[in-house]
Design goal:
By secondary structure, the chain is α/β, with parallel strands linked by helices. It is about 30% helix and about 25% strand. The protein folds into two domains: about 20-165, Immunoglobulin-like; about 175-405, Aminopeptidase. A six-stranded mixed sheet has the order 14-11-15-18-16-17, with helices on both faces. Strands 2-3-10-9 form a four-stranded antiparallel sheet, with no helix packed on it. The longest helix is centred in the last third of the chain and has 32 residues, at about 300-330.
Length: about 400
């Protein structure tokens, strides 16, 4: 009898326990709306098939259906808070006439996507395991006669915030990004014929700086011309400029067939023990962690303080890598089979600034080299990286605000 009473009590309090659970949040950098093929009728005369991916901080109950007048995809999500996330930040938002999301009713939020034509939900499923829970919805175009919307859809937009509540896309105030064109001067980097890595990445950095400045971002360059700058000095210059993101640009060479496609490298914590000790020995200790004077401290303490600083910057660096690779995938930029890798590169050692190294491509690969020297490809890549940086910055600021609360 006592056991039955305990079970009954648990059933009574279970809704309260569920309600007390932290709300799930959308990971916009790892979410996207993408085209997965050509439109019907052999690529002509209709909208293309699409796939919506919503990556969340935890798995949640959800439901998916279509409504008409106008044709919309509705995704209802239980226990999801969209605060701080903007529909415009979803990669692929420009593929459809409109996207809105927000609170729907108690405990539920709703995503409304206006579609460019009649569709059916080909499949819908949720991955609940690592690396992150993700809801994937495949949409396939159909003829008007085959479109089967859910009836009584008058409430599809109920309780959603009006579009006016979303501010124009802009990076956080006083966002400072350090661009680090690799090599330079006596170090030309990789070479293929008359092309050198140092010249290619410097030219790309200048174009990227212009694109970022047009978005209101302040840009600090570790080198402005064909000059040599020591690796550690690059980090120091970024820190002196107050950079909130450090992006090193490269276009290396490897033996034929070993590597091709854009690749993002992040500091690998598993290999930073020895590197951190060497860094502590080589440089003024007060240059390693902003605001922390390590002068006179032993190496173990220096390592510990740097590791502690990385508990904040490493996840932020990883989030930037997700934004960047998602944007590259959306825009059709060819990437390495493993587009995000860990490495112990010197320019990634800074524990107090989120950092990444972007291999734009490998100058040793014929296709990559053609891209790197193609103005059209370079312009597209510039827009991809600039959009990823500003999108990540907005997301990073929203996450910081939630942590403060």
């Amino acid at each position: 009898m006592t056991r039955l009473a305990l079970i009954f009590a648990l059933l009574l309090v279970w809704p309260g326990l569920a309600a007390a659970q932290e709300p799930a949040t959308l990971q916009p950098g790892a979410s996207s709306l993408t085209v997965t093929g050509r439109g019907k009728l052999l690529g002509w005369g209709g909208p293309p098939p699409m796939e919506l991916r919503l990556t969340l901080t935890r798995a949640v109950p959800y439901r998916v259906y279509l409504v008409g007048d106008p044709i919309r995809l509705i995704v209802d999500l239980q226990g999801v808070d969209f605060a701080g996330s903007r529909p415009d930040d979803l990669f692929g938002a420009d593929l459809v006439p409109a996207i809105r999301w927000g609170h729907y009713r108690r405990g539920w939020s709703r995503v409304v996507i206006e579609l460019p034509g009649p569709y059916r939900v080909q499949s819908a499923g949720q991955r609940t395991t690592a690396p992150q829970p993700q809801i994937t919805i495949a949409l396939h175009p159909v003829d008007e006669a085959d479109f089967a919307p859910r009836p009584s859809a008058a409430t599809a937009l109920r309780d959603l915030p009006p579009p006016a509540e979303f501010a124009p896309a802009a990076p956080p105030e006083k966002l400072v990004v350090a661009l680090d064109p690799g090599h330079g001067g006596i170090d030309p980097g990789a070479q293929a014929g008359s092309a050198s890595e140092a010249d290619l990445v410097l030219s790309f950095a200048h174009d990227l700086r212009a694109a970022l400045q047009a978005r209101g971002v302040e840009v600090a360059m570790t080198r402005e011309d064909d000059s040599f700058v020591r690796l550690e000095e690059r980090m120091t210059r970024a820190r002196a400029a107050g950079a909130q993101l450090f992006l090193s640009l490269h276009a290396d060479a490897l033996p034929q067939g070993q590597a091709a496609g854009a690749t993002v490298y992040l500091w690998n914590p598993a290999s930073d023990g020895r590197a951190a000790r060497q860094l502590a020995m080589r440089h003024d200790r007060d240059d390693l962690v902003a605001g922390v004077d390590l002068a006179g401290q032993d190496d173990a303490l220096a390592d510990t303080l740097m590791d502690f600083a990385r508990t904040d910057t490493q996840p932020r660096s990883e989030n930037f890598a997700r934004w960047l690779t998602s944007r590259m995938a959306l825009m059709g930029i060819g990437m390495h089979g493993r587009p995000v890798k860990g490495a112990a590169f010197s320019v990634l050692k800074s524990p107090d600034i989120p950092s990444a190294l972007l291999e734009l491509g490998f100058i040793s690969d014929d296709s990559d080299r053609a891209n790197l020297t193609d103005p059209s490809w370079r312009a597209r890549m510039v827009e991809v990286v600039a959009d990823a940086i500003t999108g990540w910055a907005r997301d990073d600021r929203a996450r910081s605000a939630m942590l403060r609360h």
